[in-house]
Write a structure and sequence with these properties.
Distance between the termini: 23 Å
Helix content: over 70%
Pfam families: Virul_fac_BrkB
GO cellular component, one term: plasma membrane
Structural class: mainly alpha
InterPro entries: Virul_fac_BrkB
Shape: globular
Membrane topology: Multi-pass membrane protein
Number of strands: 0
Oligomer: single chain
Radius of gyration: 20 Å
Keywords: Cell membrane, Membrane, Transmembrane, Transmembrane helix
């Protein structure tokens, strides 16, 4: 608890909220080119557009999902093959800017000045971006597995036989999704800082980010459902809602990184005193 309190204090005292805004801006610029890139991959995978949108829906709060869905469909209507190929380059570069922003923030969190040449740092961040861009499309197979299980249940016997399983499925689905997110964030926090880290110093931040991000997405979705942003921002409401959600997501990522950095420094100090 003390570690989280210290990390939260650093988030405000060292103005990491500014870094969260910068990261959210880069994510905002990259989200639609990235979605177009993923959609271009659907031609080679047993996944349709509905599966992609269903994968996004649980995490995108309120009108954010509707905004993404409408814009993706509108873009696809007038998109040519050349635009889809260019989307990969745009998404990759813009997403790498978000990764570089987070990498600089984590370097400051660990109070470590990078000694690597600029080109090696850039290659590292581009490599991390490429890994994440591969991992996210792979995760789209989760809805396919779910549909396969439901298909099996529907044909394996009487529905009453599987009633308990069907009742527990939403809980199991949440646990499975949370486990996937946790492992993703463990990998994220282990590879992005340019230093060797023990797993015990990574788990606290990954666990915090997994639970907090899901809660904030759900809570923000409830708020958006009760507050009419359209009356305030008009046609920009969808963009504003998405931008706020990305900012909150970036803030949670940074706080999780600060928790890990604080845990690392505490462990380092305890070893020094032994």
């Amino acid at each position: 608890m003390g570690t989280a309190k210290t990390a939260l204090g650093r988030f405000f005292s060292e103005r990491y909220y500014d870094q969260a805004a910068q990261t959210a801006y880069y994510l905002m610029l990259s989200i639609f080119p990235f979605l177009l890139f993923v959609l271009s991959l659907l031609n080679f995978l047993p996944i349709n557009l509905d599966s992609l949108l269903l994968f996004i829906e649980p995490y995108a709060p309120g009108n954010t999902y509707t905004f993404i869905e409408n814009n993706v469909l509108r873009i696809l209507e007038g998109t040519q093959s050349g635009v889809l190929s260019i989307s990969l380059i745009s998404a990759f570069w813009l997403a790498s800017m978000a990764v570089q922003s987070l990498a600089r923030s984590f370097a400051a969190a660990y109070e470590k000045e990078t000694t690597l040449p600029f080109w090696r740092t850039l290659l590292h961040d581009l490599g991390v971006t490429a890994i994440f861009m591969i991992m996210i499309p792979v995760s789209l197979f989760v809805p396919i597995v779910e549909k396969g299980l439901l298909w099996f249940v529907a044909r394996a016997g009487e529905l009453e036989t599987w009633s308990l399983w069907i009742t527990l499925w939403p809980i199991l689905k949440w646990i499975t999704g949370s486990l996937f997110l946790f492992l993703f964030f463990v990998f994220f926090y282990s590879i992005l800082p340019k230093k060797r880290l023990a797993i015990r110093t990574i788990v606290p931040g990954a666990l915090f980010t997994t639970l907090s991000w899901q809660f904030i997405s759900w809570f923000y979705g409830q708020v958006v459902g009760y507050v009419s942003y359209t009356q305030i921002y008009g046609q920009l409401a969808g963009i504003i809602i998405l931008m706020i959600w990305l900012y909150l997501s970036a803030a949670v990522l940074l706080i999780g990184g600060l928790i890990n950095a604080t845990s690392y420094q505490n462990r380092k100090e305890s070893i020094r005193l032994e």
